Amino acid sequence: MKKVFCFLGILATCAAVFANDANQMKYVLLYNADNGIGGDTTGPVTDVSAYKGNAAFAVAFGTAATAGNTNTATIKHCATTNGTFVTATNINGTAVKVQVVGAAASSLNTVACDLGRLNKYIRAEVEFNAETNGCAVWMVAPMKSE
After folding, report:
1. Closest to 56 in 3D by CA, of 143, 146, 142, 139
2. How many CB atoms lie within 10 A of CB 76?
3. Which helix (H) or strand (E) holds 2?
4. Considering its fold, how many domains does the chain have in total?
5. Cα gap 3→80, rounded to integer Å
6. Is residue 4 part of a domain?
7. What is the domain range of residue 79?
């Protein structure tokens, strides 16, 4: 009977220890806006010095009613919180941004970037053209301490 309880104890411990995301990814909300904001808007400044490796930036725009609607979400970075933020680029030199056009622009879009290429602070800048549908931008990346 002791062996059974010992086995169950080990099993419970393993389940608790290994229940987390296998890659230890962290999800950071960079921008979130409901419908009705319009124009160009900027998310809060986020310190990414605690993160490492490749990050995925996920962008989700709400459904637009106008066929000619264009929405753009761009990741920008800077060495200081109040300096000039410039567009981040990935290893190919391509801007880290998502642009969707049309009425059916409600899908989830992702773009990858190595965090080693970015300065300490980032923010998401979103441009709404012709309509004011909602938008959310997340960063998914592992932390250095894990």
Report:
1. 139
2. 22
3. helix 2-17
4. 1
5. 58
6. no
7. 23-142
